[in-house]
Specification:
Two copies of one chain form a homodimer.
Chain A lengths: L14 H28 L4 H12 L3 E2 H8 L3 H13 L3 E5 L7 E5 L1 H25 L1 H14 L2 H12 L4
Antiparallel strand pairs in A: 1-3, 2-3
Chain B binds a DNA duplex through helix 2 and helix 4.
Chain lengths: ~170, ~170
DNA sequence: TTGGAATGTCAACAAGGCTGACATATTCTG
DNA sequence: CAGAATATGTCAGCCTTGTTGACATTCCAA
């Protein structure tokens, strides 16, 4: 550290502070996924199913290709998950109207029910954390997370908010 | 939303805000692991190896059981990873002095070199994010993450800071 | 001294990533 | 229209990393 016992203003960049941040991410992510994981385990699903359900819910009618880009996995990997969700009647795959090569993905009633169950649990944890930390902490939390994303990921992330809610 | 168009002070608890937080965690975690993942892929290791190396570095001489509790996996799962690290000469496993059932784990020179390479990459990303977001954001970031952990995880997390550096 | 608890290892299985190859339907382009 | 490009689905096979079950060793307390 060139600054030596540098000013308070720079303290947050010490290796020690960075390490704490790294470990906080590790442990917090476990907490973040713990509640949905429990629900999913009962139904013999995994995180992959959760992610698919979440983003289909967020962007109803999205295409397979779209989902692929958001999730950052291969189509073979996504397909396996999607197939089981369709077989189980949680997701519906409709041939595209304008482009018949595409498949538009929607949650069925049952799919929406599971989505709600999962996101309720996850939101509850997030809500509790937000409440404990307070509104200013929340703003900082989001700023750091956004700065930590790759550019591609940040684009995906921002695009979701602009998404036309139909 | 019982508050209706509630005061600014409560805005951060809307479902929309919570959802953004959830998605931010998802995308940010990908960024968080991206750099180490690239380095590990070259060497045919995975995240599990990274985690083991990280926490052995943090608490040299730790036992398998200890590491188990920190990582939250089964001992069989950890053992596989540990075995390959030992075979490759990155980790040394010494029979415990007082209790011969235990194994004390240490990084070798080569292990420390890899640890440094991985943590340099990850710290660099964290440093950049911290710099972009600023010190107040960092404080909030940490507060929210800590509030998101399970109690057990938070205890593990806090214990690491108290760890006697030998 | 002996039986239970703690610690660690080995074997086998499953989920969910990955690559590669290939089939099909559809759309676009020259 | 012919052929290239695109979107999707599927099969096979591999790897990492979770899981459970069985077992060996070591320690400790009754």
């Amino acid at each position: 550290m060139a600054e030596g016992a540098g000013g308070q203003a720079l303290l947050f960049l010490t290796d020690e502070q960075l390490r704490k941040g790294i470990e906080a991410m590790f442990f917090a992510y476990r907490g973040f996924t713990a509640d949905p994981d429990r629900i999913l385990a009962e139904k013999s699903y995994g995180r992959a199913h959760h992610r698919a359900i979440h983003f289909i819910h967020r962007a109803p009618g999205t295409t397979v290709n779209n989902l692929l880009a958001t999730l950052g996995v291969t189509k073979q990997s996504l397909n396996r998950v999607l197939r089981s969700l369709i077989e189980d009647g949680l997701v519906e795959s409709r041939v595209g109207r304008s482009d018949k090569r595409e498949r538009n993905l929607h949650l069925t009633e049952a799919g929406q029910a599971l989505e709600r169950e999962l996101s309720d649990a996850q939101r509850e944890r997030m809500r509790a954390a937000y409440r404990t930390a307070g509104p200013e902490a929340v703003a900082g939390f989001r700023q750091v997370l956004e700065a930590m994303m790759d550019d591609d990921q940040r684009r995906q992330y921002e695009r979701l908010s602009e998404a036309p809610r139909r």
